[in-house]
Amino acid sequence: MAERRAETSSPLSGDRVHQSLWSTLRRDPKVLFAGGFLLLLVLLAIFAPFIAPKDPLEQDLMLGTLPPAGGSGYEPGYFLGTDDLGRDVLSRLIYGTRIALLVAFIAAGLAALFGTVLGLLAGWYGGLVDIVISRLVEIWMAFPPVLLSILLVAVFGSGVHSVIAAIVIIDWTRFCRVIRAETMGQARLDYVIAARTMGYPKLRILIREILPNVLPVLVALLSLEMGIAVIVEAILSFVGLSVSSDTPTWGGMIAQGRQIIYQGWWVLTFPLMALFATVLAFNQLGDGLRRALDPVLKR
Question: What pTM value is reported for the model?
Fold first, then answer.
């Protein structure tokens, strides 16, 4: 039975699966728009020095709180206006994309790696391993996540590395619980029973058989976690516990804009819009990937 399953997973059948997946994703407008928007953000982050019209740190108090294009007193070259220190909002918004995506990709990736490994071990080996990991998850999830993240960053010190570490320490539990449940479900299926009957080592079955079948859930959850990481970084920047105040971040811009909301509403509005659109794109992409990769939902 396991041999028959191995025969069907030939390179040709794998290519057909990939083609079918790609065609499914192309027909989903949510995936196209979300993926296109996130790709645009990645390009903005990579080529920020060439795209940003101004230096995001350059100050000119004579140009403070200039309105965006279309407003009375608009200054050419400052399309989204300036903040109270005369810094270009558009340039700071573009450079803020770097911090948001850096935290999203690295923090979510590390949390997924750590939580997935523990979830696989707990769901596959069971017994004492499952008990220890499950109790650890329950204890960890008893702490309020936002307060715990603020506490961790306050202990570690401000900086992007501290933000990433705080997100990984908090959010690995989400991956661990989901992957554990998926692994336990896969372990009861016929192909796993057949592999065990044929005498394959447990670790080989876990890596070669079970892991590929939990990847769809993992990919969707990873996309959602990236959106959460962006929010957490913005919250920590808002309270001044992320990177230094000189580094442009969306959360820092929101905190600054809140103080001058009546003099320059655009300083608060545009980073809020960027934050909302980015989190929505990650969520829509995760939902689309889940629908495309889940065989039950595809029916």
Answer: 0.83
245 inside domain: yes
Tokens of 187: 């372990």
Mean pLDDT on 3-29: 50
Q: At 88, give phi and psi (nearest 5°).
A: -70, 125
Q: What pLDDT is stored for residue 10 in this prediction?
A: 37
Give the 3-state secondary structure percentages of the chain, helix then strand then coil, rounded to 5. 75, 0, 25
Give the domain CATH number at 192: 1.10.3720.10
Residues 6+ apart with CB under 8 A from 7: none
Separation CA 281–CA 295 (nearest Å): 23
Q: Is there a contact between 192 and 214 (Cβ–Cβ < 8 Å)?
A: no
Tokens 């990481």 correspond to 229
- Residue 227 bridge partners (DSSP): none
Let me know if residue 60 belongs to a domain. yes
Lowest mean pLDDT among 23-37, 68-82, 275-289: 23-37
Contact (CB, 8 A) for 271 and 93 = yes
Question: Residue 198 corresponds to which tokens in the numbers above?
Answer: 């044929």
Alpha carbons within 13 angstroms on the beta-carbon side of residue 19 total 6
Alpha helices in 70-189 (DSSP H): 89-125, 127-140, 145-156, 160-187
DSSP SS3 for 71: coil
Q: How many domains does one find in the chain?
A: 1
Could you list the residue range(s) of the whole structural domain that residue 235 is in?
Answer: 40-298
Residue 275 inside a domain? The answer is: yes
* 10 belongs to a structural domain: no
Give the residue carrying structure tokens 């990937």: 289
